[in-house]
C-alpha cells in the first residue's frame, strides 16, 4: 500500500528559513539605525514572519544570531531585544581564531566609542590574565582592536574597535590637546563669548566723562555770589591748605597712580548701558556658536552648540552673564552681561596695574586689594628664595611709584 510522502512545513524547510533570515535582516537594516533595539513585537511588525508563527520567528532569529548578524540585548525597560550588526563585523566574529577572542571582542565591541579598560574586560569575563593577554594580542594582530588614551583614565590601558573614532568623553572634545587640557584655548574662547554677549546686550551712551566716572549729577541751580563766598565756613583740607601756603602737596606713587586712573576714567566718554526691559534680541547659544564659526576663531576645531553651551555655563556660574528667558521661546534663553554700569568699554579690564586680564567689571576694592598682593595670581607661591618673592616683585615698585617699569628677573629653578 503506497503512502503519501510528507512535505516539510515552513518552520522546517531550511531553504525557506534562509530566505526569511535574509528578508528579516534587510528589514532591520532598512528600518532603523545600527543601535536600534528590536523587540519581538517590532520584528513581527516588519511583516516578514506571520504574527501567528512565533516558533518560526525564533528559528529565524536564532539563525541570524548564530551568523553573528543579530545580537541579543537585555534591556531594563523593554526586556529581551535584538540589534543588528553589519555584515563586515559579523564576518570578523566568524574569522576569530578562538572562543576566548570572540568573548573579548564582543565586550570591546559593546563598549563602543568610549572604549573599555583591560581590567574591566578581565572582571566581566572572569578569565585568566594570560588568556586575556593572548586574546588581545590576537585581536590586535588582525587589526580588529587598538589601544586608546582616555582623559578620564589617563593611566589605564584602554581598548577600542579599530574602525571606531574615540568619543568626546574619551578624548575630552575640543578642550583637550593630546590628552592635556588646553586652558589657554578655553580662556580665549571664554573671553570671545563674553565679548559677544556684552556687545549684544548693551549700548553705548555718550555722556560727560566726569559724570560717567563719578556718577555725580550737575547742579541745576547756581549759588549766589562768588566761589569764595560759597567756600566760607567750609573747613579746608590739608591739600588746600598746603596750596594756599605756597607749598606743593606731596603725592606718593600710589596717589599719583590713583589720580592718573581717575583722569583716565573721567576722559572716557562712552558708557555702557543695559537694554530696556522686554528686549528680546539677546544672543542665544546657537547664535554665539554661529558667530564663532564664521569668525574662524577655533582653528582646526569644530565647535558644536553643546561645546559653546559649556563655555556659556561657566560664565553664568562665574556671575559674568545671566540667562534671559524669552516669552516666545522659554527653552532657549538669551544671555546678557551682568553689572553692566560697572563694565569698561573694552571686552576685558586690567585690575590694580597687574598684568592679568580679567573679564567683567573690576572687583570692588578695599585696603588689601589696593595693594598688589591682594590680587596677585601667584600669591601662594610668593616667598623669599622662591621663584616669586617680594624682592623680585615688579608690581610693588610700580604701585609705589618708585619705577615706571621693571623687567622681572629670571630665576632658574
Automatic annotation (TrEMBL):
SUPFAM superfamilies: Winged helix' DNA-binding domain. One of its GO terms (biological process) is transcription by RNA polymerase III. Residues 218-251 are annotated as: Disordered. InterPro entries: RNA_pol_Rpc34 (IPR007832), RNA_pol_Rpc34-like (IPR016049), WH-like_DNA-bd_sf (IPR036388), WH_DNA-bd_sf (IPR036390). Keywords: DNA-directed RNA polymerase, Nucleus, Transcription. One of its GO terms (cellular component) is RNA polymerase III complex. Its main location: nucleus. The keyword Cell wall biogenesis/degradation does not apply. It is found in: Nucleus. It comes from the Eukaryota. Belongs to the eukaryotic RPC34/RPC39 RNA polymerase subunit family. This is DNA-directed RNA polymerase III subunit RPC6. It comes from Gaeumannomyces tritici (strain R3-111a-1) (Wheat and barley take-all root rot fungus).
Amino acid at each position: 500500500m503506497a503512502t503519501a510522502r510528507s512535505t516539510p512545513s515552513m518552520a522546517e524547510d531550511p531553504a525557506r528559513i534562509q530566505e526569511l533570515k535574509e528578508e528579516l535582516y534587510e528589514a532591520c537594516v532598512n528600518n532603523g539605525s545600527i543601535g536600534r533595539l528590536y523587540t519581538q513585537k517590532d520584528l513581527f511588525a516588519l511583516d516578514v514572519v506571520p504574527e501567528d508563527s512565533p516558533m518560526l520567528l525564533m528559528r529565524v532569529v536564532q539563525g541570524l544570531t548564530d551568523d553573528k548578524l543579530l545580537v541579543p540585548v537585555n534591556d531594563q525597560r523593554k526586556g529581551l531585544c535584538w540589534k543588528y550588526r553589519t555584515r563586515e563585523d559579523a564576518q570578523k566574529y566568524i574569522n576569530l581564531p578562538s572562543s576566548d577572542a570572540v568573548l573579548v571582542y564582543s565586550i570591546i565591541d559593546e563598549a563602543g566609542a568610549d572604549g573599555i579598560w583591560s581590567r574591566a574586560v578581565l572582571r566581566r569575563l572572569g578569565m585568566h590574565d594570560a588568556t586575556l593577554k593572548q586574546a588581545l594580542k590576537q585581536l590586535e594582530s588582525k587589526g580588529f582592536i587598538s589601544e586608546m588614551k582616555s582623559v578620564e583614565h589617563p593611566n589605564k590601558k584602554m581598548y577600542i574597535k579599530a574602525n571606531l573614532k574615540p568619543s568626546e568623553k574619551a578624548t575630552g572634545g575640543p578642550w583637550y590637546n593630546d590628552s592635556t587640557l588646553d586652558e589657554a584655548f578655553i580662556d580665549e574662547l571664554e573671553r570671545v563669548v563674553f565679548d559677544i554677549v556684552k556687545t549684544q546686550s548693551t549700548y553705548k551712551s555718550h555722556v560727560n566723562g566726569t559724570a560717567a566716572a563719578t556718577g555725580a549729577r550737575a547742579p541745576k541751580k547756581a549759588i549766589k555770589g562768588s566761589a569764595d563766598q560759597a567756600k566760607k565756613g567750609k573747613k579746608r583740607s590739608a591739600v588746600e591748605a598746603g596750596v594756599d601756603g605756597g607749598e606743593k602737596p606731596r603725592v606718593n606713587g600710589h596717589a599719583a597712580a590713583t589720580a592718573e586712573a581717575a583722569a583716565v576714567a573721567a576722559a572716557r566718554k562712552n558708557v555702557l548701558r543695559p537694554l530696556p526691559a522686554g528686549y528680546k534680541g539677546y544672543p542665544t547659544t546657537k547664535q554665539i556658536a554661529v558667530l564663532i564659526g564664521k569668525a574662524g576663531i577655533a582653528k582646526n576645531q569644530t565647535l558644536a552648540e553643546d561645546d559653546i553651551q559649556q563655555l556659556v555655563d561657566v560664565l553664568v556660574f562665574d556671575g559674568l552673564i545671566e540667562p534671559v528667558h524669552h516669552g516666545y521661546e522659554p527653552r532657549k534663553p538669551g544671555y546678557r552681561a551682568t553689572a553692566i554700569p560697572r563694565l569698561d568699554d573694552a571686552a576685558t579690564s586690567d585690575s590694580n596695574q597687574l598684568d592679568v586680564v580679567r573679564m567683567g567689571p573690576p572687583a570692588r576694592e578695599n585696603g588689601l586689594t589696593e595693594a598688589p598682593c591682594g590680587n596677585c595670581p601667584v600669591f601662594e607661591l610668593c616667598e623669599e628664595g622662591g621663584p616669586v618673592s617680594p624682592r623680585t616683585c615688579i608690581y610693588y615698585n610700580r604701585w609705589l611709584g618708585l619705577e615706571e617699569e621693571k623687567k622681572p628677573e629670571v630665576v632658574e629653578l
